[in-house]
Amino acid sequence: MALKDSYTLPAAADMHVHLRNAPGAIASLVTPTIRSAGVDTVFVMPNLAPRPVVSVAEALEYKKALQQLDGQVNYLMSLYLHESVTPDVIREAKKAGIAGVKAYPRGATTNSQWGVVSFEPFHEVLQAMEEEGVVLNLHGEVPSSSADGVTVMNAEERFLPVLQGLVAKYPRLKIVLEHCTSADAVKAVTALGENVVATITAHHLSLLVDDWSANVHHYCKPSAKSPEDRRALLNAVVTSNGKFFLGTDSAPHDITSKKGKGNTAAGVFTQPHALGYVLTALEEAIARGDIADSSVTEDVLKGFFSEYGRQFYGVPLATKQIRLTRGGARVEESLKGEGVEVVPFRAGEETWGVEWL
Ligand code: DOR
Ligand code: ZN
Predict the structure, then answer these.
(1) In-domain check, residue 327
(2) Which positions fall inside the Amidohydrolase-related domain (predicted)?
């Protein structure tokens, strides 16, 4: 067996999660699974509907509601980049401890209808973020357009010049290319300075285009791509050195939004077993020969799961430890709450158990 049967590691930080509206049925269902997954810190995405989180007051209110669901998690809050976010809002956000501002290209994903068409009108806002050290979190896709030859398969690649343009214009701005999915994105981020990093999800280390084309629970944005792309992500994890860290993009949707009459909602729900999914993906990658078994060291896991993300955001390192044990848990068939049902990734499969030490 390629990996050990058990790992003792610092508590993890998941730097990209969707917890949905709080109070709310999905938030009540998924927020308690953060700590049971071995995670003590999460970066919370602001793409709520019918209204995204666009003010400091809304972000703080949202944080308070999440704390009512689990007061022991450190919630790093974010704002949704929108015309109501001004340089003054950025300065207020910095004082209030808001960790980042998420930019959604309009039309690229769930609840992006209030998102960015161009970064030009946000010049002063981006300058203020650069000055204050507020992170810009990028959903790195351009919207699909048959006129421009853009589909979900090349939407991320087409976004990379936008990323490079932002870096050239705001060289000190801290940027996270969220949930990168392609070899091109890994290469682009690797070539940029240390203020530019990327998150990698658990499911993109496992899935390919064939998987989501056959299963709505595997469909997300950006969508999973080719074997070469997946191999690049796996190699980015084991050679990260701080450039790539865990951001699961765990995105719970009620089963009716996944399987209803309309288009399926984008999002893979991975919160309850985030770390186990990564270990399984690494093990499968070793079996395929995508990575060497010697490359998965405890330092690699410690950095990717826990330390690199905290270091980037300036969050203190974890004080508690967790133990992950092979075969110690089974993924639920579904999680049911008040009038909602969410199907997790790899439902019904055996996975790694988590204990807090
Ligand atoms: O698959 C996704 N789901 N990608 C996103 O960018 C948003 C997320 C969601 O909010 O469901
Ligand atoms: Zn997301």
Answers:
(1) no
(2) 85-185
- The neighbour count for residue 141, using CB atoms within 10 Å, is 27
CATH number of the CATH domain containing 79: 3.20.20.140
Confirm whether 343 is domain-assigned.
Answer: no
Is pLDDT of 1 > 80?
A: no
Indicate whether 2 belongs to any domain. Answer: no
List residues, by chain if needed, whose CB lies under 5 Å from ion ligand 2: 249
Q: Residue 284: is it exposed, middle or buried by C-beta count within 10 angstroms (0-12/13-18/19+)?
A: middle
How many CB atoms lie under 10 A from the CB of residue 161? 11
- Is the minimum distance from the CB of 240 to ligand 1 under 6 angstroms? no
Q: How many domains does the chain have?
A: 1
Residue type at 66?
L
Q: Which atom of ligand 1 is found nearest the CA of 265?
A: 11
What pLDDT digit, counting tens, does each position of 235-285 carry?
A: 999 999 999 999 999 999 999 999 988 999 999 999 999 999 999 999 999
Distance of CA 33 to the CA centre of its chain: 16
CA distance 29 to 185: 33
Q: Within a 13 Å sphere around the CA of 198, how many CA atoms are in the beta-carbon half?
A: 27
Q: For residue 42, how far is its CA from the centre of ligand 2 (angstroms)?
A: 12
Q: What is the pLDDT of residues 181-240, one digit of tens each?
A: 999 999 999 999 999 999 999 999 999 999 999 999 999 999 999 999 999 999 999 999
Full residue range of the structural domain in which residue 214 is found: 13-317
Average pLDDT for residues 93-110, to the nearest whole number? 95
